[in-house]
Amino acid sequence: MISFLDLRKINNRFRKEFQEAFSRSLDASHFILGENVSTFEREFSQYCGTKFCIGTANGLDALTLILKGYIQLGKLKKGDKIIVPANTFIATILSVLHADLEPVLVEPNPDTHNLSLQEVKKILTKDVKAIIMVHLYGQLAEAEELRHLSNQHDLLLIEDAAQAHGAMTNSKSTRAGNLSDAAAFSFYPSKNLGALGDGGAITTNDSELHETLKLLRNYGSKEKYKNNIIGYNSRLDDVQATFLSIKLKCLDDDNQRRRVIAKQYLNDINNPKIKLPFYNGSSNHVFYAFVVEVEHRADFTKFLDKHNIGWLIHYPIAPHKQDALHRFSHLKLPTTEQIHKRIISLPISPVMAREEVRSVIEVVNTY
Ligand SMILES: *Cc1c(COP(=O)(O)O)cnc(C)c1O
Hints:
Blueprint: H1 7-12, H2 15-28, H3 35-48, E1 52-56, H4 59-72, E2 81-85, H5 90-98, E3 102-106, H6 117-123, E4 128-134, H7 143-153, E5 156-160, E6 182-186, E7 200-204, H8 207-216, E8 221-223, E9 226-227, H9 238-248, H10 251-268, E10 274-275, E11 290-294, H11 297-306, H12 334-342, E12 343-346, H13 354-366
Helix pairs in contact: 2-9, 3-9, 4-5, 4-8
Bound molecules: pyridoxal-5'-phosphate.
Active site: 191
InterPro entries: DegT/StrS_aminotransferase, PyrdxlP-dep_Trfase, PyrdxlP-dep_Trfase_major, PyrdxlP-dep_Trfase_small
GO molecular function: pyridoxal phosphate binding; transaminase activity
């Protein structure tokens, strides 16, 4: 059996370091916003190239707090429209709703599955105040073009970088997290940088936003038992921060290994029934997922099951077709709907053995 993602194998590489770090945490017993959180925040902001990093409880909170932070600062207000890709993971859209803002769902580019610049331009009205670009599957969205457009129209540009830790632009070697006004990351265990539980972070170069977010994530409080604003409880766990510091050292190597596997798939899968993903060969993709398209998906998944190859669908139901988002069910989003019908993710991870990669290629080619 080739598993879709062998988390045990991924984390076993760090078992000894994790155990030592846990022991130190237990000795220090500073479980909430201890030194390990500030150390990881410093390391991760350095890694992304931003001035600031704020650890949060998870990725959804990171997104929501960015929006609430801008509301607190008077840069967004209730009901403002926020552009989001229609084919994103539902968290992006939920964050906008949780902040009492209005998501505007926009069709993606059918090749990259990332926000389409043309579609964004088509839908841009005066009520739109921000764009959330999602680096879907680990591939950077068209950040420079979206930055330019946002500057022209005085919009905030926000990144959902939950799938793109370490992805880098070709032109300026700028990393995900440093391509917008503020970026949200998730450290959900299966992400390229994954904790041993929930975790998230925000990166930004905006010192005012940074100060506000530090308050918002911690009861609106800077000084214990003194509450300046109406805050939340969304802190990155101190012990998770130590695990993340350990794994961060391996992130570039892990991403490189993912790219090597992706290149093998792209070179050697030659089945005309399988549409391979768009990739320009650069470091702008970290292959959180290797997503192919197939017309008769149920057929293909049965075939993969028969050959003991793990697979997943990122994601099987378009957000506007979810019961929770029935308010958007009237929308006509044919590209998004087509994508959700046809996509399937093949196994890819830094711990996949070469023979496993070869087996996947062989099996997919005989379908
Ligand atoms: C994982 C993910 C999130 C949410 O992260 P959580 O830590 O699970 O809350 C948000 N957006 C995208 C695109 C994701 O993949």
